[in-house]
Write a structure and sequence with these properties.
Number of strands: 16
Strand content: 15-25%
Protein name: Beta-lactamase-related domain-containing protein
Number of helices: 8
InterPro entries: Beta-lactam-related, Beta-lactam/transpept-like, Beta-lactamase-like_AB/R
Structural class: alpha+beta
Order of helices and strands: HHHHHEEHHEEEEEEHEEEEEEEE
CATH topology of the largest domain: Beta-lactamase
Largest sheet: 8 strands, antiparallel, barrel
Distance between the termini: 52 Å
CATH class of the largest domain: Alpha Beta
Radius of gyration: 24 Å
Pfam families: Beta-lactamase (PF00144)
Shape: elongated
Family: Belongs to the beta-lactamase family.
CATH architecture of the largest domain: 3-Layer(aba) Sandwich
Number of domains: 2
Helix content: 10-25%
C-alpha cells in the first residue's frame, strides 16, 4: 500500500518523517535528534521495539490480543526508548508496521471505515485475491487448522490494534496472484520503478550476506538474487520468495510455526542452483577468454598506507565465465569480460546498482601485469588499487 500511495503521488518520499503524517507520534531517542522515516519503518531500521505495547491483557485472550486504541499506544510510546539510532541497525518491529498502517489509513483511507476495507478495495480485490481476509469474522469454514510446535491446536487469534502486522489469512492461489503482480510490474498496481525501489538494499549486515530492503530480505544463493518475505504466528507460517531476474517465484504456507522460513531457505538454494549462471547472465555481454588459467587465483591488496584496509579478491571460472569475487564485499561477485590478454572489463550482474560494489564499477577495466614461471599473471590494477597474487 505504501508504494501504491507513492506511485499515486499521495506520498512524496519514503524518506519523509513519520511525524509529517502523525504529528502526535513521539518516542524517546537517547542517541541523537534523528526522526524516524517511512523507509526506516519498512526496512525495520527504525529502532522501535518489536511489539505493540498492548497492556496487561497482551496474549491472555486470543479473541483480542491487543485490546488498545491509538491514543493509548501513542501515549505509551512517549516514554519508550528506541533500541538504536534510526537507520544504524536492524531490529524487526511489528510495532512500526502497525503504526505506519494506522497513520496512512487515517490520512488516506478513512472513507473506507477501517484499514481492512481500505486494503481489500485498493489492493486485494483489484488483484483478484478473493480468498484473502484481514479479520477473523469471515471464512471460518474450509480453513486449515493451526498447530503449535508442541502439537497442540492453536486457536484463531484476533490481534486487535496490532493486526496490520499479523492478521491476514490467505490461500496459496491468492498469494501467487500477489507474487505475479510484483514480478510483472507492467500489469500491476505499481510500476517497475516502484518495484526497484522496493528491492533497494537499505541495510547490509556485517556478514555481507543478508540485506534488508523495504519489506523484504535479500540474499544471494549461487549468485542468484533471492528476495523473501517470511513470517510466523502461533500455529502457522508463510513465505513469498522471488527471483526477479529469472521472473520466477513461489509461495509456501504451512500449519506449523517454524516450518516455512527454514523450508523456504532450503528450496531457494536448490532452485538457484538449477538456474545457475547460464540463466542469470545469458543476456550479459561477456566475452570469454581463450586462456583463463593465467587469471585464476587469489589476489591480496598491496597496501602501504593503512593496516586497517584489507581486501582479498579471487578470480574463478564458473560455467565458462571468469568471475571476480571480493572479500569483504557486497554482492560477492561480478563478471569479467575479455578485451585483450592484459585487459579485462567488469560486467555487473542484473539487478546490481552502481553503488553496490565496493571495488570497481560496471564497465571498469582491470589491467594485468607480469607473468610468473607458470604463465599466470602476478598482479592486476583496479583503479588506484594494486592486487598481488598470493597463490
Amino acid at each position: 500500500m505504501t508504494f501504491k500511495l507513492l506511485q499515486e503521488k499521495k506520498l512524496d518520499c519514503l524518506d519523509d518523517s513519520l511525524q509529517k503524517f502523525l504529528p502526535e507520534f513521539s518516542v524517546e531517542n537517547p542517541f541523537n535528534e534523528d526522526t524516524i522515516t517511512i523507509r526506516q519503518i519498512l526496512s525495520h531500521t527504525s529502532g522501535l521495539p518489536r511489539e505493540v505495547p498492548c497492556g496487561p491483557s497482551f496474549s491472555s485472550n486470543h479473541k483480542n490480543i491487543c485490546p488498545v486504541n491509538t491514543t493509548y499506544v501513542y501515549e505509551k510510546l512517549k516514554s519508550t526508548k528506541l533500541k538504536f539510532s534510526p537507520g544504524t541497525s536492524v531490529g524487526y518491529s511489528n510495532l512500526g508496521y502497525a503504526i505506519l498502517a494506522h497513520a496512512l489509513f487515517e490520512k488516506f483511507g478513512g472513507r473506507y471505515g477501517s484499514w481492512q476495507q481500505w486494503m481489500l478495495h485498493e489492493i486485494l480485490y483489484p488483484l483478484g485475491m478473493t480468498r484473502t481476509v484481514l479479520n477473523n469474522n469471515r471464512f471460518h469454514h474450509n480453513v486449515a487448522l493451526s498447530y503449535k510446535t508442541n502439537g497442540i491446536l492453536s486457536p484463531p487469534f484476533d490481534w486487535g490494534w496490532s493486526s496490520p502486522s499479523f492478521q491476514m489469512k490467505t490461500s496459496a492461489a491468492d498469494l501467487t496472484k500477489l507474487m505475479l503482480a510484483i514480478l510483472n510490474p507492467e500489469t500491476s498496481f505499481i510500476d517497475e520503478k516502484m518495484t526497484r525501489d522496493m528491492f533497494k538494499p537499505e541495510f547490509i549486515f556485517p556478514d555481507l550476506h543478508t540485506i534488508f530492503s523495504p519489506g523484504w530480505q535479500i540474499r544471494y544463493h549461487n549468485s542468484v538474487r533471492v528476495i523473501t518475505k517470511a513470517g510466523t504466528v502461533p500455529g502457522s507460517s508463510a513465505a513469498i520468495i522471488l527471483m526477479p531476474e529469472q521472473r520466477f517465484g513461489f509461495v509456501l504456507l504451512a500449519t506449523g510455526q517454524e516450518i516455512v522460513p527454514k523450508l523456504a531457505e532450503e528450496i531457494s538454494v536448490k532452485i538457484s542452483k538449477t538456474f545457475s549462471m547460464n540463466v542469470v547472465s545469458k543476456s550479459l555481454e561477456i566475452r570469454p577468454s581463450s586462456n583463463t588459467g593465467r587469471y585464476i587465483g587469489v589476489y591480496i591488496l598491496k597496501n602501504n598506507w593503512s593496516d586497517k584496509v584489507k581486501a582479498t579478491i579471487s578470480i574463478e571460472l564458473f560455467t565458462g565465465r571468469l568471475m571476480l569475487k571480493q572479500d569483504p564485499g557486497y554482492p560477492p561477485y561480478v563478471y569479467l569480460s575479455f578485451i585483450t590478454s592484459q585487459l579485462l572489463q567488469i560486467v555487473y550482474p542484473h539487478g546490481l546498482t552502481c553503488e553496490g560494489y565496493a571495488l570497481g564499477q560496471d564497465k571498469e577495466n582491470i589491467k594485468f601485469k607480469h607473468l610468473d614461471y607458470k604463465g599466470r599473471f602476478k598482479q592486476f590494477t583496479l583503479g588506484s588499487f594494486v592486487f598481488k597474487r598470493s597463490n
